[in-house]
């Protein structure tokens, strides 16, 4: 069925990404074909160049000229072949634009033979603003992106309880002496899922299954696939999933908060009471204050989610895939402590009748909205 103005943003996003991925694949295949062909031509030229008859040396020059033209011919053929795909991408972006507050028809495409490898120049053929930014955001993530089929996700096993328990013990042992008992109590409280969702015991494939198909790494939240491949789940994740790579790394942000509380207040509850505006407090602990380094975190982020609008559309595309059995969204391997502009950890507390309890702790690439920085508390 052709997509039109009634199509949902998830369906539109899925179609746009699929078409751009096809363009990238076409270019890659054409490049590989041209590279192999030029290699074969060069081999023939080298053989002919060693022969004495002048007419064969002339033939070698002629063949070398053919090889030199292959690159241009392949580029021209690729450009011509992808034009229909890009016209459709432009049409779909026009349909998607109102979801982002852009009214009216988008200006036409500009003709270009630029290869997709030059992301900025390739995206420049699309109208400036929303469309150009959208295309660039998508194509720059294609080469590194990965995904899982529903069947692949189904084969990802929940992390065994024994592994979670072992990780909990290891993490508790890494807290500084005065903070050890309280740190362990925070992590093992009923409200906390810091270790279960972001601990070092979680394999990368479980982080990816959580991102792409919302499969809970612990297996506690229901996850089912129907006979027609529809996925239902009681779990949730945003446009990124992941966690810490060692017990020490997970403990460090919490330890930093406990240390700050001990120097600025009588105890943790008093420290959080003084800085909370309601029953929930989210704290951004910068990487340098927590002594976190690149490689202390691992995970995935949704492909082409560099802007708020592409993040919303990626989530809509995931919802569409789960409802229709695909096509699966993609994720990009990501260490937020390495790639982030303001890396650190987000630590969330919740107040209950018996005081403050830890909710979660996970690595982030930048401070999230509605969080307070530790150094400002």
Based on the structure, what is the oligomeric state of the protein chains? Answer: single chain
Task: Please state the overall shape, judged from the principal axes of the Cα atoms.
Answer: elongated
Number of helices: 14
Question: Based on DSSP secondary structure assignment, what is the total number of beta strands?
Answer: 9
| Class per helix and strand makeup | alpha+beta
Biggest pleated sheet: 4 strands, mixed
Distance between the termini: 55 Å
Overall tally of domains: 2
Beta-strand content estimate: 5-15%
Structure description:
The chain is an alpha+beta fold. It is built from 14 helices and 9 strands. It has 2 domains: 9-142, no CATH class; 150-376, no CATH class. It has helices at 9-49, 54-96, 119-123, 130-142, 150-155, 161-174, 180-187, 194-198, 204-213, 247-264, 268-275, 287-290, 308-324, 336-339; strands at residues 223-225, 231-233, 240-244, 280-286, 297-302, 331-333, 344-352, 355-364, 372-373. It has a 4-stranded mixed β-sheet with strand order 8-7-4-9. A 3-stranded antiparallel β-sheet has the order 3-5-6. It has a two-stranded antiparallel ribbon with strand order 1-2.
């Amino acid at each position: 069925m052709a997509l039109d103005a009634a199509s949902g943003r998830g369906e539109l996003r899925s179609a746009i990404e699929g078409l751009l991925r096809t363009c990238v694949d076409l270019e890659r295949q054409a490049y590989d074909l041209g590279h192999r062909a030029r290699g074969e031509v060069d081999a023939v030229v080298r053989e002919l160049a060693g022969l004495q008859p002048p007419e064969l040396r002339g033939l070698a020059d002629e063949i070398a000229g053919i090889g030199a033209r292959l690159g241009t011919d392949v580029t021209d053929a690729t450009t011509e072949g992808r034009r229909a795909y890009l016209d459709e991408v432009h049409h779909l972006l026009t349909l998607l634009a109102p979801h982002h507050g852009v009214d009216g028809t988008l200006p036409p495409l500009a003709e270009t033979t630029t290869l997709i490898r030059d992301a900025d120049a390739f995206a420049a053929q699309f109208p400036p603003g929303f469309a150009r930014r959208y295309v660039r955001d998508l194509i720059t993530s294609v080469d590194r992106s990965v995904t899982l089929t529903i069947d692949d996700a189904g084969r990802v096993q929940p992390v065994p309880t024994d592994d979670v328990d072992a990780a909990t013990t290891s993490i508790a042992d890494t807290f500084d002496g005065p903070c050890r008992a309280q740190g362990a109590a925070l992590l093992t409280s009923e409200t906390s899922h810091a270790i279960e969702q972001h601990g070092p015991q979680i394999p990368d494939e479980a982080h990816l299954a959580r991102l792409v198909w919302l499969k809970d790494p612990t297996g506690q939240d229901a996850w089912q696939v129907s006979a027609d491949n529809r996925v239902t789940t009681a779990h949730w994740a945003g446009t990124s999933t992941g966690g810490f790579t060692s017990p020490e790394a997970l403990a460090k942000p919490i330890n930093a908060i406990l240390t700050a509380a001990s120097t600025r207040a009588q105890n943790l509850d008093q420290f959080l009471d003084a800085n909370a505006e309601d029953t929930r407090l989210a704290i951004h602990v910068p990487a340098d204050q927590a002594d976190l380094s690149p490689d202390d975190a691992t995970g995935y982020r949704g492909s082409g989610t560099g802007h708020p609008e592409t993040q919303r559309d990626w989530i809509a595309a995931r919802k569409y895939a789960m409802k229709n059995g695909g096509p699966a969204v993609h994720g990009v391997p990501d260490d937020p402590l390495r790639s982030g502009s303001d890396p650190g950890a987000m630590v969330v507390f919740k107040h209950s009748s018996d005081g403050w309890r830890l909710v979660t702790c996970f690595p982030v690439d930048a401070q999230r909205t509605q969080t307070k920085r530790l150094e400002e508390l």
